[in-house]
Amino acid sequence: MITPMDCLAVFAGLWLLANSGQALTLPADQVVLGSNNDDASEIAKKIQKELKEAEIIPTVIDDFTPSLTLQAEWSSDNSALLGNTLKPKKLQDAPSISLYDPSGGNEFCTRSGKTYVVTLTDPDAPSRDNPKWSEMCHWIAAGHGVSTSSSTPTSTGDCLFAEPLALTELEEIMPYKAPGPPEKTGKHRYVFFAFAAENGTTDKLHPSKPKDRQHWGYDAPGKDGQTHGVRDWAKENGLVPVAANFIYSKNKKQ
Ligand SMILES: *[C@@H]1O[C@H](CO)[C@@H](O)[C@H](O)[C@H]1NC(C)=O
Protein backbone atom coordinates (compact mmCIF):
# COMPACT_ATOMS: atom_id res chain seq x y z
CA MET A 1 0.00 0.00 0.00
CA ILE A 2 1.39 3.37 -0.95
CA THR A 3 0.85 6.15 1.55
CA PRO A 4 0.69 9.84 0.72
CA MET A 5 4.12 10.21 2.35
CA ASP A 6 5.54 7.69 -0.10
CA CYS A 7 4.17 9.68 -2.99
CA LEU A 8 5.75 12.82 -1.72
CA ALA A 9 9.03 11.06 -1.16
CA VAL A 10 9.04 9.38 -4.54
CA PHE A 11 7.94 12.47 -6.31
CA ALA A 12 10.47 14.70 -4.60
CA GLY A 13 13.09 11.98 -5.08
CA LEU A 14 12.44 11.77 -8.79
CA TRP A 15 12.45 15.50 -9.07
CA LEU A 16 15.69 15.82 -7.17
CA LEU A 17 17.28 12.99 -9.08
CA ALA A 18 16.20 14.53 -12.35
CA ASN A 19 17.73 17.77 -11.20
CA SER A 20 20.97 16.41 -9.81
CA GLY A 21 23.46 19.21 -9.82
CA GLN A 22 20.99 21.81 -8.75
CA ALA A 23 19.14 19.46 -6.45
CA LEU A 24 19.48 21.55 -3.35
CA THR A 25 18.39 24.87 -4.76
CA LEU A 26 14.70 24.12 -4.41
CA PRO A 27 13.38 22.63 -1.18
CA ALA A 28 11.41 19.44 -1.66
CA ASP A 29 8.29 20.79 0.04
CA GLN A 30 8.17 23.61 -2.42
CA VAL A 31 8.35 21.12 -5.25
CA VAL A 32 5.62 19.03 -3.77
CA LEU A 33 3.30 21.89 -2.96
CA GLY A 34 3.88 23.79 -6.14
CA SER A 35 1.36 22.46 -8.61
CA ASN A 36 2.07 24.73 -11.48
CA ASN A 37 2.81 23.59 -14.96
CA ASP A 38 6.35 24.94 -14.96
CA ASP A 39 7.35 22.24 -12.49
CA ALA A 40 5.64 19.62 -14.63
CA SER A 41 7.39 20.64 -17.82
CA GLU A 42 10.73 20.82 -15.98
CA ILE A 43 10.20 17.28 -14.73
CA ALA A 44 9.25 16.08 -18.21
CA LYS A 45 12.38 17.67 -19.66
CA LYS A 46 14.64 16.10 -17.08
CA ILE A 47 13.17 12.64 -17.62
CA GLN A 48 13.57 13.12 -21.36
CA LYS A 49 17.19 14.11 -20.80
CA GLU A 50 17.90 10.98 -18.75
CA LEU A 51 16.29 8.83 -21.44
CA LYS A 52 18.48 10.45 -24.08
CA GLU A 53 21.66 10.12 -22.05
CA ALA A 54 20.98 6.41 -21.63
CA GLU A 55 20.26 6.25 -25.39
CA ILE A 56 16.78 4.92 -24.74
CA ILE A 57 15.62 7.82 -26.89
CA PRO A 58 16.05 7.29 -29.85
CA THR A 59 17.26 3.65 -29.81
CA VAL A 60 14.29 2.10 -28.04
CA ILE A 61 11.57 4.72 -28.48
CA ASP A 62 11.11 7.84 -30.61
CA ASP A 63 11.45 11.15 -28.83
CA PHE A 64 8.42 12.00 -26.70
CA THR A 65 7.52 14.29 -23.83
CA PRO A 66 6.44 12.32 -20.76
CA SER A 67 3.17 13.60 -19.31
CA LEU A 68 3.26 11.31 -16.28
CA THR A 69 5.96 9.85 -14.09
CA LEU A 70 6.09 6.10 -13.60
CA GLN A 71 7.02 4.38 -10.38
CA ALA A 72 7.97 0.70 -10.47
CA GLU A 73 8.56 -0.71 -7.01
CA TRP A 74 9.70 -4.26 -6.35
CA SER A 75 10.13 -3.63 -2.63
CA SER A 76 10.59 -0.59 -0.42
CA ASP A 77 14.34 -0.50 -1.16
CA ASN A 78 14.12 -1.41 -4.81
CA SER A 79 12.43 1.07 -7.14
CA ALA A 80 13.29 2.31 -10.59
CA LEU A 81 14.87 5.76 -10.35
CA LEU A 82 15.83 6.69 -13.90
CA GLY A 83 19.00 4.67 -14.17
CA ASN A 84 19.88 3.29 -10.74
CA THR A 85 21.44 -0.16 -10.56
CA LEU A 86 19.55 -3.00 -8.86
CA LYS A 87 20.50 -6.63 -8.26
CA PRO A 88 18.67 -9.23 -10.38
CA LYS A 89 17.71 -11.22 -7.27
CA LYS A 90 15.70 -8.22 -6.02
CA LEU A 91 13.59 -8.20 -9.16
CA GLN A 92 12.06 -11.66 -9.04
CA ASP A 93 8.39 -10.69 -8.77
CA ALA A 94 6.55 -8.13 -10.88
CA PRO A 95 6.83 -4.64 -9.39
CA SER A 96 3.84 -2.56 -8.39
CA ILE A 97 3.27 0.29 -10.80
CA SER A 98 1.98 3.77 -10.04
CA LEU A 99 1.69 6.77 -12.28
CA TYR A 100 1.94 10.34 -11.07
CA ASP A 101 0.76 13.47 -12.74
CA PRO A 102 3.33 16.17 -12.01
CA SER A 103 1.03 18.93 -13.23
CA GLY A 104 -1.50 18.33 -10.44
CA GLY A 105 -4.85 19.99 -10.83
CA ASN A 106 -7.66 18.84 -13.06
CA GLU A 107 -5.50 16.83 -15.35
CA PHE A 108 -4.99 14.26 -12.65
CA CYS A 109 -8.67 13.78 -11.92
CA THR A 110 -9.53 13.22 -15.51
CA ARG A 111 -6.82 10.62 -15.84
CA SER A 112 -8.29 8.42 -13.16
CA GLY A 113 -10.07 5.53 -14.84
CA LYS A 114 -8.03 5.83 -18.00
CA THR A 115 -6.53 2.78 -19.45
CA TYR A 116 -2.80 2.18 -19.64
CA VAL A 117 -0.46 -0.50 -20.83
CA VAL A 118 2.84 -1.03 -19.05
CA THR A 119 5.79 -2.76 -20.67
CA LEU A 120 9.29 -3.82 -19.63
CA THR A 121 11.91 -4.33 -22.31
CA ASP A 122 15.63 -5.18 -22.41
CA PRO A 123 17.40 -3.61 -25.40
CA ASP A 124 20.73 -5.09 -24.28
CA ALA A 125 20.15 -8.79 -24.83
CA PRO A 126 22.44 -10.58 -24.53
CA SER A 127 24.68 -7.53 -24.07
CA ARG A 128 24.73 -3.86 -24.95
CA ASP A 129 27.73 -4.45 -27.25
CA ASN A 130 26.08 -7.35 -29.02
CA PRO A 131 22.29 -6.90 -28.86
CA LYS A 132 21.53 -9.73 -31.28
CA TRP A 133 18.45 -10.87 -29.31
CA SER A 134 17.28 -7.32 -28.69
CA GLU A 135 14.82 -6.34 -27.67
CA MET A 136 13.72 -8.91 -25.16
CA CYS A 137 10.13 -8.52 -24.02
CA HIS A 138 9.91 -8.96 -20.24
CA TRP A 139 6.39 -7.81 -19.50
CA ILE A 140 3.20 -6.44 -20.98
CA ALA A 141 0.30 -5.64 -18.67
CA ALA A 142 -2.85 -3.61 -19.14
CA GLY A 143 -4.81 -1.88 -16.42
CA HIS A 144 -6.97 1.02 -15.38
CA GLY A 145 -5.60 3.90 -13.37
CA VAL A 146 -7.23 4.08 -9.97
CA SER A 147 -6.54 6.81 -7.48
CA THR A 148 -5.31 5.27 -4.26
CA SER A 149 -7.19 7.81 -2.16
CA SER A 150 -10.87 8.58 -2.09
CA SER A 151 -10.22 12.18 -2.98
CA THR A 152 -12.59 13.70 -5.46
CA PRO A 153 -12.17 17.03 -7.17
CA THR A 154 -12.84 19.95 -4.86
CA SER A 155 -15.49 22.50 -5.72
CA THR A 156 -12.86 24.47 -7.60
CA GLY A 157 -11.99 21.39 -9.58
CA ASP A 158 -8.57 20.96 -8.01
CA CYS A 159 -7.20 17.61 -7.04
CA LEU A 160 -4.63 16.91 -4.42
CA PHE A 161 -1.18 17.11 -5.87
CA ALA A 162 1.10 14.10 -6.14
CA GLU A 163 -1.60 11.51 -5.71
CA PRO A 164 -0.50 8.27 -7.28
CA LEU A 165 -2.52 6.58 -9.90
CA ALA A 166 -2.00 2.94 -9.05
CA LEU A 167 -2.45 0.55 -11.90
CA THR A 168 -4.67 -2.05 -10.37
CA GLU A 169 -5.77 -5.44 -11.54
CA LEU A 170 -3.11 -5.53 -14.15
CA GLU A 171 -3.96 -8.04 -16.78
CA GLU A 172 -0.80 -9.70 -17.96
CA ILE A 173 -0.65 -9.98 -21.71
CA MET A 174 2.92 -11.22 -21.59
CA PRO A 175 3.70 -12.63 -18.11
CA TYR A 176 6.45 -10.94 -16.12
CA LYS A 177 9.85 -12.49 -16.76
CA ALA A 178 12.34 -11.36 -14.16
CA PRO A 179 15.51 -9.72 -15.49
CA GLY A 180 18.23 -12.39 -15.68
CA PRO A 181 21.25 -10.80 -17.33
CA PRO A 182 23.71 -13.58 -18.32
CA GLU A 183 27.23 -13.76 -16.91
CA LYS A 184 29.84 -11.44 -18.40
CA THR A 185 27.36 -9.36 -20.37
CA GLY A 186 27.76 -6.10 -18.45
CA LYS A 187 24.95 -3.82 -17.44
CA HIS A 188 21.61 -4.19 -19.16
CA ARG A 189 19.05 -1.40 -19.38
CA TYR A 190 15.62 -2.51 -18.27
CA VAL A 191 13.13 0.03 -19.52
CA PHE A 192 9.55 0.60 -18.47
CA PHE A 193 7.00 2.47 -20.52
CA ALA A 194 3.41 3.34 -19.82
CA PHE A 195 1.37 3.71 -22.98
CA ALA A 196 -2.08 5.15 -23.60
CA ALA A 197 -4.29 4.63 -26.63
CA GLU A 198 -3.58 7.18 -29.32
CA ASN A 199 -7.33 7.59 -29.93
CA GLY A 200 -7.94 8.44 -26.25
CA THR A 201 -10.34 5.59 -25.61
CA THR A 202 -11.15 4.77 -21.97
CA ASP A 203 -12.14 1.21 -22.87
CA LYS A 204 -9.93 -1.57 -21.65
CA LEU A 205 -7.09 -2.19 -24.06
CA HIS A 206 -6.36 -5.57 -25.54
CA PRO A 207 -3.02 -5.18 -27.23
CA SER A 208 -1.57 -8.09 -29.14
CA LYS A 209 0.69 -10.65 -27.50
CA PRO A 210 4.04 -10.97 -29.27
CA LYS A 211 4.60 -14.51 -30.53
CA ASP A 212 8.00 -14.57 -28.89
CA ARG A 213 9.88 -12.59 -26.23
CA GLN A 214 12.99 -12.33 -28.36
CA HIS A 215 12.77 -9.35 -30.72
CA TRP A 216 9.22 -8.97 -29.41
CA GLY A 217 8.31 -11.64 -31.95
CA TYR A 218 9.62 -9.70 -34.94
CA ASP A 219 12.22 -10.90 -37.38
CA ALA A 220 15.33 -9.09 -36.40
CA PRO A 221 17.57 -7.47 -37.09
CA GLY A 222 15.92 -5.95 -40.11
CA LYS A 223 17.72 -5.14 -43.35
CA ASP A 224 18.77 -1.78 -41.95
CA GLY A 225 20.45 -3.55 -39.02
CA GLN A 226 17.82 -2.05 -36.70
CA THR A 227 16.60 -4.22 -33.88
CA HIS A 228 12.89 -4.48 -33.28
CA GLY A 229 10.95 -4.20 -30.12
CA VAL A 230 8.48 -2.23 -28.08
CA ARG A 231 8.36 0.70 -30.52
CA ASP A 232 7.15 -1.48 -33.41
CA TRP A 233 4.67 -3.26 -31.17
CA ALA A 234 3.26 -0.03 -29.69
CA LYS A 235 2.76 1.50 -33.14
CA GLU A 236 1.03 -1.62 -34.35
CA ASN A 237 -1.34 -1.44 -31.38
CA GLY A 238 -2.18 2.26 -31.64
CA LEU A 239 -0.34 3.09 -28.41
CA VAL A 240 1.64 6.22 -27.58
CA PRO A 241 4.15 6.49 -24.72
CA VAL A 242 3.15 8.73 -21.78
CA ALA A 243 5.74 7.75 -19.15
CA ALA A 244 9.04 5.91 -18.80
CA ASN A 245 11.54 4.82 -16.19
CA PHE A 246 14.53 2.48 -16.20
CA ILE A 247 17.10 0.64 -14.15
CA TYR A 248 20.39 -1.07 -14.85
CA SER A 249 21.06 -4.61 -13.74
CA LYS A 250 23.91 -7.04 -14.32
CA ASN A 251 24.96 -10.53 -13.43
CA LYS A 252 27.36 -10.53 -10.48
CA LYS A 253 29.81 -12.68 -12.52
CA GLN A 254 31.54 -10.29 -14.87
C1 LIG B 1 -8.80 2.94 -30.00
O1 LIG B 1 -7.53 2.32 -29.94
C2 LIG B 1 -7.52 1.07 -29.26
C3 LIG B 1 -6.07 0.62 -29.18
O2 LIG B 1 -5.50 0.54 -30.44
C4 LIG B 1 -8.42 0.08 -30.03
O3 LIG B 1 -8.44 -1.15 -29.33
C5 LIG B 1 -9.82 0.65 -30.12
O4 LIG B 1 -10.61 -0.20 -30.92
C6 LIG B 1 -9.80 2.04 -30.72
N1 LIG B 1 -11.13 2.59 -30.60
C7 LIG B 1 -11.69 3.30 -31.57
C8 LIG B 1 -13.05 3.84 -31.28
O5 LIG B 1 -11.15 3.49 -32.66
TrEMBL record:
An example molecular function term from Gene Ontology annotations: phospholipid binding
Cite the SUPFAM superfamilies for this sequence: PEBP-like (SSF49777)
Q: Which UniProt keywords apply?
A: Signal
Q: Name one GO biological process term.
A: regulation of Ras protein signal transduction
What ranges does the record give for the region Disordered, renumbered to this chain?
202-230
Q: Which Pfam families match?
A: PBP
Is Thylakoid among the key words of this record? no
Q: Where is the signal peptide?
A: 1-23
Q: Please give the PANTHER family that the UniProt record associates with this protein.
A: CARBOXYPEPTIDASE Y INHIBITOR, PHOSPHATIDYLETHANOLAMINE-BINDING PROTEIN
Q: Which named protein is this?
A: Phosphatidylethanolamine-binding protein
Originating organism: Podospora appendiculata
Recall the taxonomic lineage recorded for the source organism.
Eukaryota, Fungi, Dikarya, Ascomycota, Pezizomycotina
